[in-house]
Write a structure and sequence with these properties.
Blueprint: E1 8-11, E2 14-20, E3 26-30, E4 58-60, H1 61-66, E5 77-79, H2 82-100, E6 105-106, H3 121-131, E7 137-139, H4 145-154, H5 158-163, H6 168-174, E8 177-181, H7 201-211, E9 214-219, E10 229-232, H8 238-251, H9 257-263, E11 264-265, H10 267-274, H11 285-292, H12 296-308, E12 311-315, H13 325-339, E13 348-350, E14 381-383, H14 387-392, E15 397-400, E16 403-406, E17 412-416, H15 420-423, H16 427-433, E18 439-444, H17 449-452, E19 456-459, E20 468-470, E21 477-481, H18 494-502, H19 516-520, H20 525-541, H21 550-556, E22 558-560, H22 572-576, E23 590-591, H23 595-600, E24 628-633, H24 647-650, E25 659-663, H25 664-669, E26 677-682, E27 685-694, E28 701-705, E29 712-713, E30 720-721, E31 748-753, E32 769-771
Parallel strand pairs: 5-32, 6-17, 7-14, 8-9, 8-12, 9-10, 11-23, 12-13, 17-18, 18-19, 24-28, 25-27, 27-30
Antiparallel strand pairs: 1-2, 2-3, 4-5, 4-19, 15-16, 20-21, 21-22, 24-31, 25-28, 26-27, 26-31, 29-30
Bound molecules: ligand MGD (2 copies) and molybdenum atom.
Length: 802
């Protein structure tokens, strides 16, 4: 068994020690200080050399032969040398820059990749492309784009709120009532972006409950979350419930008028909306009951309880990934403001308790150094989830946060460290869009669906194959991680791949015919680790934290930051003195009504939280045809699509297919039994899944995790995923024109028994690979350079707001 002192490997789901035995076999044990390690880590070793690893650089066959762009995802590959693959990638980058400008390169490259401060794939990509003259970028996340855009108008930037987030310790000390819209997941807190030293979340919740906190979980299914009480709700209707609660508070005079006057602006406008003064429609508990399926008396009773005791209003991140997800987070803040507890210990609002391990723990926020990426000279960007729209509609205008922008004309896509064929919605639509670029270059350790949709594939290493420093600004430790295995076959780390490419690329002004020295900064990888560490050490010294010298840190394997003595109180300074510590909003107060947002003129957004029925929900007309609301949540047994091919993930499937959880009533109506193969479908596509019947899911709702690798049966139109990738049926729809975030969770479907013999699952079988002995000839570059379209050029907001 590995012991303290053995080399450390750090991942987003935990930190582990590794030891090789006499036969060379490696075993792992969780970091000794981790009280509740995640079993996801058990898969690290097997995935280092499984049959999905990419052994050599690869070029897609029909791209190599004739520059084809249509067979992405269906083709075989040709194994080539590093020289050949790098030469071709450099030729393509150079050609696209010369013909169309840097804006035609999309390197938004969203995704989680691996933990590690230096080997952060996207940072490496950005560093190189910035030297090369820039690229079209992506903005915001798939996790909570709606919140990222709306909250700065209403209260403060999301990152600032996360840094000072309310902790379970404070909630316990206050013995608060936690009203959790979207629940408090235990499954999701296995993860933390950048790494987890100690999984404390489960213990922290248990401690808060033991101290007297009480959690009311409001979710469509009583899934793997924690609650003292479960209130089932129809998906996508939380805003109506929150409005109903707000109405009871005002109509019974239970709201905190002093707080609303002193610390907020615009309550009057909101109040007249919920009371129906303008349109005669009161958003009261009876109104909310019809929409949400939560009984009106339950709503009234909950509002009274919230007014009577210290309360935390928590909204899970899933509430942002819905149509009008901006409104859910806005209203969470408004509801907490009406209760008057904002800025008091263990009260107010919380933004995603349970979403990841760091939300709700007691720790300091540390400013860790990151790889310097330079400046992107190109101003073009898209809100991250608009990728298919961008590829399909170059030149088309779109609105984003009060601006009108235009989609750039993308000719080359570069992805390193993320997987759009996991994360994006309506994958049949994405596949159509994905045929548009002339070249797609990808770095991947495994033959994921993204790798299979690329033209040039560079095999990347995994964290266990490289030295790094790993940690998250919101975790308790910084680790010196060590390679515990040689890189698989010919795999190289992202830094080396980009260094090889940099040697073949020139600067935008052509003064440098190699970018290699500029990219590496003249440092080897050990020197980079030392400089990132020294940078971190200097930053922390300024805050009174003294870290040892690099060598001593490497020797020890980690540095643990002290936890603060007192639990954090979100927005305490503002509450103590709002004039001295105003919020960074236009009024310096919580904006219940936002003049700025009202000025954007977005349909259904009057400048305060308001209910507009989403396109897809159980109350929609569409539900007559598609009567099941499919909720697609995070997977318990992996991180998104990562490690899907490993034993721990496979053990959660049903005969190799992803499981779909439905209620007994819905199963009976469709003649479905436990373990059957079901077909889940709508107009956009279909997938097969194994049936799991559950008492604790609202009838009319089905639940499936994301992350099954796409495995298409293309003989059907639209194509069907045999393995159960939910994004074949989800809608590629923006939250709203405010944030343009993904509405990933929201989707109506029908489910039926799959009557025919189910096809075999082939998701984890690598594509066919040809090995050629002679040197390859490069694919033809497209002969005719299309002229630059008239609307290309830097994206510019049109004058004023819209
Ligand atoms: N329907 C639906 N869809 C969703 C969601 C949902 O709730 N419902 N949730 C969304 C959310 S919140 C998120 S964050 C996204 C997540 O989407 P992603 O972050 O894109 O998903 P991952 O599977 O983590 O993708 C990481 C990829 O990086 C690769 N990789 C790992 N390490 C390295 C490395 O060192 N170098 C390189 N080059 N590659 C590496 C992995 O093989 C993997 O393919 O999904 C979104 N999609
Ligand atoms: N094990 C594991 N943990 C993860 C991840 C992973 O891939 N694996 N991914 C991480 C990432 S990138 C992120 S962004 C976070 C995401 O964190 P979340 O967004 O909080 O996670 P989800 O699992 O998508 O959704 C949480 C719960 O929301 C509830 N829910 C869904 N729709 C509705 C609704 O309309 N109303 C209400 N009231 N409830 C609803 C469901 O019960 C669901 O289980 O998780 C992180 N944690
Ligand atoms: Mo996420």
């Amino acid at each position: 068994m590995p012991q303290s002192g053995d080399p450390l490997v750090s991942t987003h789901w935990g930190t582990y020690r590794a030891r090789n035995d006499a036969t060379g076999a490696t075993s792992l044990a969780a970091f000794e200080d981790d009280p509740d390690p995640s079993p996801i880590g058990e898969s690290i070793i097997e995935t280092l050399s499984d049959s999905c690893r990419i052994a050599r650089p690869m070029i897609r066959k029909s791209y190599l032969e004739r520059g084809d762009t249509t067979r992405r995802g269906q083709d075989s590959f040709v194994a080539v040398s590093w020289e050949e693959a790098l030469d071709l990638a450099a030729r393509e980058l150079t050609r696209i820059r010369a013909n169309y400008g840097n804006e035609a390169i999309y390197a938004g490259s969203y995704g989680w990749a691996s933990a590690g401060r230096f080997h952060h794939a996207q940072s490496q990509l950005r560093r190189l492309l910035n030297l090369f003259g820039g690229y079209t970028a992506s903005r915001n996340t798939y996790s909570y784009a709606a919140a990222e855009v709306v909250l700065p108008h209403v209260v403060a930037p999301l990152d600032q709120l996360f840094n000072d987030h309310t902790s379970w310790r404070a909630i316990g000390e206050t013995r608060a009532l936690v009203v959790a819209f979207g629940g408090v997941s235990l499954r999701n807190s296995q993860i933390n972006p950048g790494g987890v030293a100690r999984h404390t979340h489960k213990g922290d919740i248990a401690g808060a409950i033991a101290a007297g906190a009480h959690i009311v979980s409001i979710t469509p299914s009583r899934d793997e979350g924690y609650s003292n009480e479960w209130t089932p709700i129809r998906p996508n209707t939380d805003l109506a419930l929150m409005l109903g609660l707000a109405h009871t508070l005002t109509s019974e005079g239970l709201h905190d008028k002093d707080f609303l006057t002193r610390y907020c602006t615009g309550f009057d406008k909101f109040e007249s909306y919920i009371c129906g003064e303008t349109d005669g429609l009161a958003r009261d508990a009876d109104w909310a009951a019809v929409i949400t399926g939560v009984d009106a008396d339950t709503i009234r009773a909950l509002a009274r309880r919230m007014a009577k005791q210290p309360t935390v209003v928590n909204a899970s991140w899933s509430l942002t990934r819905q149509h009008n997800g901006e409104m859910n987070y806005w209203m969470t803040v408004v509801l907490a403001a009406m209760l008057g507890g904002v800025g008091r210990k263990g009260e107010g609002f919380a933004l995603g308790l349970g979403a990841v391990n760091s939300i709700g723990n007691t720790r300091r926020t540390v400013r860790l150094a990151a790889l310097p990426t330079g400046r992107n000279p190109i101003s073009a960007f898209i809100p991250v989830a608009r990728i298919a729209d961008m590829l399909l509609h170059p030149g088309q205008p779109f609105r984003y946060n009060g601006q009108i922008l235009h989609y750039p004309d993308i000719r080359l896509v570069y992805w390193a460290g993320g997987n759009p064929f996991h994360h994006h919605q309506d994958l049949n639509r994405l596949r159509k869009a994905w045929r548009k670029p002339e070249t797609v270059i990808v770095h991947e350790p495994h033959w994921t669906p993204l790798a299979r949709h690329a033209d040039i594939v560079f095999p990347a290493t995994l964290p266990a194959e490289r030295n790094d420093i790993a940690g998250s600004p919101r975790d308790t430790h910084l680790f010196a991680t060590k390679a515990i295995a040689e890189p698989f076959a010919e795999a190289r780390d992202d830094h080396d791949i980009f260094a090889g490419l940099a040697a073949r690329l020139s600067s935008p002004d052509n003064r440098l015919n190699s970018l290699e020295a500029a990219f590496t900064g003249g440092k080897d990888k050990d020197e980079w680790l030392q400089s990132l560490y020294d940078d971190t050490r200097d930053r922390l010294a300024e805050t009174g934290v003294h870290m040892p010298a690099f060598e001593a840190f490497r020797e020890a394997g980690f540095f643990a930051f002290d936890a603060p003595e007192d639990p954090c109180i979100l927005l305490k300074a503002f509450r103590d003195n709002p004039d001295a510590h105003p919020l960074p909003t236009p009024s310096g107060r919580i904006e219940i009504f936002s003049k700025t947002i009202a000025g954007f003129g977005i349909m259904g957004n009057p400048g305060h939280p308001a209910w507009t029925p989403p396109v897809e929900w159980l109350g929609a007309r569409l539900a007559e045809r598609w009567p099941i609301h499919l909720v697609t949540h995070q997977p318990a047994r992996r991180l998104h699509s990562q490690l899907d091919q490993a034993r721990h993930s496979l053990e959660g499937k049903i005969n190799g297919r992803e499981a779909c959880v439905i209620s007994r009533q819905d199963a009976a109506r469709r003649g479905l039994r436990e373990g059957d193969v079901a077909r889940i479908f709508n107009d956009r596509g279909s997938c097969l899944a194994g049936v799991r019947i559950c008492e604790d899911v609202l009838p009319g709702v089905a639940m499936m995790p994301t992350g099954a690798w796409l495995d298409l049966d293309e003989s059907l139109t639209p194509a069907c995923c045999k393995h159960g990738n939910v994004n074949i049926v989800t809608a590629d729809r923006a939250t709203s024109e405010l944030a343009q975030g993904p509405a990933a969770l929201s989707c109506l479907v029908e489910i039926e028994r799959h009557k025919a013999e189910p096809p075999p699952v082939t998701a984890h079988r690598p594509p066919e690979i040809e090995i050629v002995q002679k040197k390859i000839s490069l694919p033809p570059a497209p002969r005719r350079a299309h002229p630059r379209p008239p609307w290309s050029g830097p994206l510019r907001p049109t004058s004023g707001t819209v």
